[in-house]
């Protein structure tokens, strides 16, 4: 048995000063101790140093394979010009194999305000397969060597296009992923688990598959789950329902796409993007989604669909709503991202009982009157975006995520973002912010009886911070001190 003591323990939205310690056995919470009783000599005492103890935080939507893989590759996040981009790629590709990933590229943050051309990339990398991905993952460009490699296989792309978007983007990126060996795949997940622990998480939901008909390396990862210090909740990210059932999965989907992204102007909107005759793209028909979601629902699979624009959200939620009326099941279907929602659409989501899986960091990075969203959508529509406060106020079970690798896998920054929304009507209290990463997140995967709270019988999963999060950016000294998984310290900031 282990006794965790000398901490401030989170209970029902507050730190309970009466709770002195937590006794655990076999990785479970055995007893909450409210007095200074002496433990028996055979109990291992673990001093938490007066730090703040939360239930283990859960991120409900990550691309952990890509995030882990890219952490081993070339990060373009601080590039200020194309010359910076080329220098980073040239230097970074020296110790890589035949597949080179450059990621976190944002053309709006470099001097030239554009993607590099394929000819420019060819000058830097001639004899390896190179892909450069935009920060949102919905656009990319590859070099000629990669074009020729892909054209030689079954997963063809139209290489006359310089920048790939939509399906072309997906085909190109997934060709790269499909050609990696098992050793590198597992290295990526081990790298991801270390990043998750450092970011304060004990459990992360992760997408596995090509967002088309392949479930990719799902079986490989499923067979290795016990090797990781975090819990991975797996999503067969595929339209292949039969394959998901054969795997024994509880759900299907993830970033299977109803639309694209705002940055690539492929998110499907009812009204055009500002100053452009473009409303984005619905990637599938209403009938397609009715049949796909209906089949998954009839087989008791939870469905998760990427939908960012209001037109795409409405398309998916309408199917959920019809099923809620005609064949209700407690499956907790998901609206991934769910960014643009007017009041009518919020009410429809409430009626469908769908779960918005949302990212506080999106507003922090791109929201506000002068932000990236405002420039593309206009200030009026920005007020209907990322509506955390409104949805929770209506009793909708929002869950929190990073969409990592798109934004950082760091609970400190996510909590700050949730409590610091640009729209005062949508910002959250500390309790609400913690809930979307604990209680609500555990509920999403039907784990509310073993995760998400510090209660007897629950897994002894704790995320320990040395400060109380507030609506100010965390300072350098405000840290994640420990992550404890089933009563074992799996991360410690020394």
Q: What composes the largest sheet?
A: 6 strands, mixed
Over the alpha carbons, how many angstroms does the gyration radius reach? 23 Å
Q: What is the number of independent domains?
A: 2
Content-based structural category: alpha/beta
Note poorly predicted spans.
none
Give the terminus-to-terminus CA distance.
24 Å
**Total helical segments:** 18
CATH structural architecture of the largest domain: Alpha-Beta Barrel
Record field, number of beta strands: 23
- Gross morphology is globular
Residue share in helices?
25-40%
Strand proportion, as a percent range, falls in 15-25%
Q: What average pLDDT do the residues reach?
A: 95
CATH superfamily of the largest domain: Metal-dependent hydrolases
Query: How do the strands of the widest beta sheet line up side by side?
Result: 3-2-7-21-22-23
> Do you know the CATH topology of the largest domain?
TIM Barrel
The CATH class of the largest domain turns out to be Alpha Beta
TL;DR of this structure?
With 494 residues, the chain is of the alpha/beta class. It has 18 helices and 23 strands.
Give a verbal description of the structure:
The protein has 494 residues and is of the alpha/beta class. The chain folds into two domains: 69-178, Diaminopimelate Epimerase, Chain A, domain 1; 182-465, Metal-dependent hydrolases (TIM Barrel). The chain is 33% helix and 23% strand. A six-stranded mixed beta sheet has the order 3-2-7-21-22-23, with helices on one face. A five-stranded mixed beta sheet has the order 9-10-11-12-13, with helices on both faces. Strands 16-17-18-19-20 form a five-stranded parallel beta sheet.
